[in-house]
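step: validate -> pass
step: tokenize input -> pass
step: predict -> running
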Amino acid sequence: MRNVALRVAYDGTDFVGSQLQSQGRTVQGAIEQAWEGLTQERRRFTLAGRTDAGVHAQGQVVNVRGETRHTPDTIARAMNALLPDDVRVLAAREVGPDFHARYSALRRDYRYLIDLEPTPLPTLRHIALHVAGRIDTTAMAEALPQLEGTHDFAAFTVQSPDQKSTVRTVYVARLVETELLGRRLIAIDLAANAFLQHMVRVIVGTVLLVGRGRMTGTEFRQVLERHDRKAAGPTAVAHGLTLMSVRYPPELVCWDDERA
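step: predict -> pass
step: emit ->
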């Protein structure tokens, strides 16, 4: 049996999520169908992380164990010929038997895009949240780094009896200005060892309260310290969020752009 890792990009607009569900179209289902079409093997793929309906990815990682003799480059090209237009394999690698897309991951990076122009641009409607009115981006930028470090993020997730721990280590929490299609956008970049359900979107919804002047930076910190979901802001819409990358020990897997 060979262990093959794929780095995958997708437009989450028309998916009910990344992982298989009892009903609806999923990214995992599309990938598994393409794999079966290529190899005639019905296999279950493992994903590095779950993304909700409407969330996008340009660096999701999946792995599968199978008996195909195709080279990684052939696997990538052939699967892209079989996959729907909203999913693409960016790269394929043969990895060791111990590689696991989820449990071997060291870090996940997400980006949330926000359009601050007065009128929304229709071509951005599936990838950025449009926010009308004045937003104090300086206050937001000052508040976000308070999340960096190891903390209990219970205030920024949904309550679930199945959640064993809400402690996570955040490596990056920052706001950056960017431009897309001639529009001024802000991006909220968050990187952590792992994320809780809806964690990024609740953080975005809460820091937007800071931007609107409805919460101070000190109060933002107090939300983290109180561990109470009711103290945080609303869950931001899914379509502004993209899983940018998943990082692993280089001895397990290394993509070409990580060598640069």
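step: describe -> The chain has a mean pLDDT of 95.
step: cleanup -> pass
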